[in-house]
Write a structure and sequence with these properties.
This protein has 267 residues and is an alpha/beta fold. It is built from nine helices and seven strands, in the order βαβαβαβαβαβααβαα. Bound molecules: NADP nicotinamide-adenine-dinucleotide phosphate.
Length: 267
């Protein structure tokens, strides 16, 4: 069967690294994103692998766009065999200061974006016995301060994927919930502040955290091995473990950790 991989948010960070990893493995690709110029640039760079690639500009939070994109993938590449719901945004603001429209936007992109991706492409995956990969976060396991919308959207995504996995039990469709820890990318520069404007800078030393390429390699390996869950980074694994067995201790630890971040809104 022809290998076809669809990646939402394939123009930057983890999505772009995944696009390179799947192209290297011989997959035809379809990648999405809102910024048409960045998307074209990514597609151009991916041409070196010599496999078909299509750019699908548009907002992942628009259900009709996703249905139209899936029809285009079906007619130009054939049915998808791997679909990665990766497009996502972050935020950084205390809830008391937050315009709740920002929280709604986080849910629209990170949760409903994945819902519309699943709605559009599950018929492909049923035909191909393919894989649906949701890119969640450690923040989906553990609510983080000043990230209410982000944590809520990722927790909702994880519950959604778990429900789908149970619903499709025995169907041949595989679901992977992938939870990276802190990964070098532009996500923190683009993170929305209390009023919805982008933060513009990262509070982390991006060079010192896991690379998008290493994350993509781990996700690729987990998807190919039909794993159920993937939790990345030592810090991420400890957070998930401690949050299960000592959640009250984790309340204190995450508060102190995020309070120490550069320009933290927690005072
Ligand atoms: N970096 C981390 O530390 C980290 C940790 C855990 C989980 N994650 C998750 O990993 C995923 C990728 O994040 P990243 O770090 O690679 O971020 P990134 O570098 O900012 O890339 C995000 C990608 O998503 C696209 N995107 C954003 N909003 C979109 C929308 N409404 N419609 C369509 N595409 C959209 C962006 O393109 P356009 O802006 O052009 O649309 C871009 O291609 C996200 O789901 C994020 O939550 C990241």
């Amino acid at each position: 069967m022809k290998k076809v991989c669809v990646i939402t948010g394939g123009s930057s960070g983890i999505g772009l690294a995944l696009a390179h990893r799947y192209a290297k493995a011989g997959y035809a690709l379809a990648i999405t994103g809102r910024n048409g110029a960045a998307l074209e640039l990514a597609c151009k760079a991916l041409e070196i692998y010599g496999h078909p690639i299509i750019c699908l500009p548009g907002d992942v939070a628009d259900a009709a766009t996703q249905i139209a994109s899936a029809a285009r993938v079906q007619s130009e590449l054939g049915p998808a065999t791997v679909v990665i719901a990766n497009a996502g945004i972050s935020m950084r603001a205390l809830f008391k200061d937050l315009d709740t429209l920002v929280l709604e936007r986080l849910m629209q992109v990170n949760f409903f974006g994945a819902v519309y991706t699943a709605k559009a492409y599950l018929p492909h995956l049923e035909q191909t016995n393919g894989s649906f990969v949701g890119i969640s976060s450690i923040a989906g396991y553990r609510g983080l301060p000043a990230r209410t919308g982000y944590s809520a959207s990722k927790a909702a995504l994880q519950a959604f994927l778990e429900s789908l996995r149970a619903e499709y039990y025995g169907s041949g469709v595989h679901f992977l919930t992938a939870c990276p820890g802190f990964t070098a990318s532009d996500i923190r520069k683009r993170a929305l502040l209390a009023d919805g404007t982008p933060q513009g800078d990262s509070p982390l030393e991006e060079k010192e955290i896991m690379s998008a390429e290493a994350v993509a390699e781990a996700i690729f390996a987990a998807q190919q091995a039909c794993k159920r869950d993937l939790v990345l980074t030592g810090q991420g694994k400890i957070t998930v473990f401690l949050n299960k067995w000592a959640p009250a201790l984790m309340d204190k630890l995450v508060y102190n950790h995020f309070k120490k971040e550069r320009d933290s809104p927690i005072t």
